[in-house]
Predict the 3D structure of the following.
Amino acid sequence: MNHFPEAWGRPRDDVYGSYDRSVFGHDAAGPTQHTQQPIVTGTSVVALKFKDGVVIAADNLASYGSLARFNDVERLRQVGTHTIVGASGDVSDMQFLYEKQLENLIIAEDYQEDGHGLRAKHIYSYLSRVMYHRRSKMDPLWNVLLVAGWDDGKPFLASADLLGTTFSSPALASGFGAHLAVPLLRRIAPDEASVANITREQAIKTIEECMKVLFYRDARSMNKYTMAIVTGKEGTNDEPDIEIQKDVSLKQQSWKFAEKIRGYGAQTV
Amino acid sequence: MTSIGTGYDLSNSVFSPDGRNFQVEYAAKAVENGGTAVGIRCRDGVVLAVEKLVQSKLLVPGSNKRIGTVDRHMGIACAGLIPDARHFISRARTEASSWRKNYHTPIPVSSLSDRMGLYAQAYTLYSSVRPFGVTSIIGGMDEEHGPTLWMVEPSGVGWGYYGAATGRGRQAAKAELEKLDLPNISVEEGVKHAARVILIAHGDNSNKDKDFELEMTWVRAADPAAAAGQTEGPVKAMGKHEPVPKELVEEAERQAREDVKGDEEDEKMEG
Amino acid sequence: MFRNNYDNDSVTFSPQGRIFQVEYALEAIKQGSAAVGLVSKTHAVLVALKRNAEELGSYQKKIIGIDSHLGIALAGLAPDARVLSNFMRSQSMSSRLLYNRPIPVSRVVNAIADKAQVNTQHYGRRPYGVGLLVAGVDETGPHLWEFQPSGMVLEYRGTAIGARSQSARTYLERNFESFENASKEELVLHGLKALRDSLAQDKELTTLNVSLAVVGIGKNFKLYDGDEVAEWLEKLGDTTSSRGGGARPSAADAPAGGAPVTTGDTEAGAMDTSE
């Protein structure tokens, strides 16, 4: 996974060569094709568990190729009472998931009024099935999803991607963040056991740091993001406290150091 | 009854010589046997209430709910055959969900009742099905019209109401509803009136010795500030359908029992 | 003889608004042997009386496991119960596959209720001829539901269905207040006592004719059959009806031939679906 979502899940052209269409003979149209690449994309989502919950963040940029096309896109979504979902990759597929699938799912769940609700692991299971189903139809939803929340009396964090692959870890990041942020996150959360020693403040600080590094190094990122903090009561499935901070700006971020770099800014030589 | 023995009442979708569809009328009879249901349209929301007769003390109190939620902003209270009511509500949810899929917006209450009228009507057209043994009261709020209340009958007919009542005690309930200044009351007042209306309707029919549970829901402006700032006319806002908080229901029921008892004593004094 | 014209199919209302085919289907439950269900704060129990058609034949299965947290007891047409239990099992599997969640008891019950309702509204179909007791445990605790062919479902603290089940219900009504805090053993014994009360005069509970199932919070649905029932019958002691003097005649014992007649019967709520 890198910051070219169009390359996710594809054999690399530089390794395997480009796809040989001649296998279809003279039928120029070839087989029926569905989504072959994302169009408008969102970059990394980063998330980290701490002792009493999870922090998750994603910036507000939607890129059209390398063009910074929209700067007010919300890529985190609260689903039900226990869960925040974050999506990178294709923004229209994300909107389909958030505004159609998950919205209907929650409305239908609320009909029952029977004291049961979909918590983080249920939402995650559902999304995993949808992603795997779509890839099996050869029509994937071009996203990497992080599901953060509270379940079984402890923090929950897991990912599902366009191939239907599922993965869980105390620290997760999608997109470019999988390369740049995960090493930073693993410094304080190398394994599940270490989560018990991470405080809420520490987790927030680490995520903020990751967002800053990503902004410096990821050309598809921006300096405004949304961060959600889920804090639960240990050992219970009571409704966790979910704090969503919108339009957060990077702290102590400056391009000043770059002024002396050749090729940057208004240098003429 | 002129219908019996004529042969015109043995199949659905058949007219009698004087232009009646008896099977639809018989379906309405099933409704008359069901527990009373009422709906009250208020200034800032809608209140729905049903008289849930408790047939056995072995039943789990508070379980076996009779009022259903449709989308987030509507509720349906039914009188008649309960399994039919569940089917009807389930169809309403399908309609609401399909509307959302197509238009990416919640279905207006009027459109939902319109569609449900069509659905009920379709079950009067064919001899291969029977009509719904259900009259449903649909209440909800939408941004264009604010709170509205509708009632759809087995024939498919559906009207808008300020106060609606159906089921066994509907006559007494209607008489009480007509005394209210609808829709110029708040949902909180509506809750109190609904409890009293159900109680009076219950006392008015043959089951008055049987125990019953009062089940109540409301749809009220999602934004309380929008409702509070307004002194006249309906509040035009989206609402959420949910059970009325337990304490409020209990208080309303307690007060209603006192009121009804007081009235009865007054009558005795006068008599 | 007066011929009821309104009972040929389930798409015809009688002038009183009743659907006789559905009411007759409810009678089919009473042709089956009794089943009892009850719940405490921690457990749900099913107890049922099995019948065999002939001495050398096996006994008809009365309790079916659906999932590790859920099972049913039936009275009436066993093949219909098999169809419904298969459907419940697939619903149960779907819930685990899609949501990674054991299906909440009320939801699987509502699913069969909706399925049954359709059979009461379309020509060419017949209502199911079986009543079910569904016992299970989910995140909101143990539950007991009764399912009827009309599509009606109700949640109970304890109830009984099938032949002579009124006597069992009478026992439950007298004792239900002690169910809530009963231990697993006490709850099973209450169930057996209720079932015992539904026995005919010359019958008794044996390891051959009793099926029993228990499910608890954190404890899987466990079916006791045959010799496994012995320990419970020992704890029960007396295996014959304690009511003495034989069974009272009750509504439940009326033969199917005594099914409701139309004329003048406008008793409100005669059809159980309208409350």
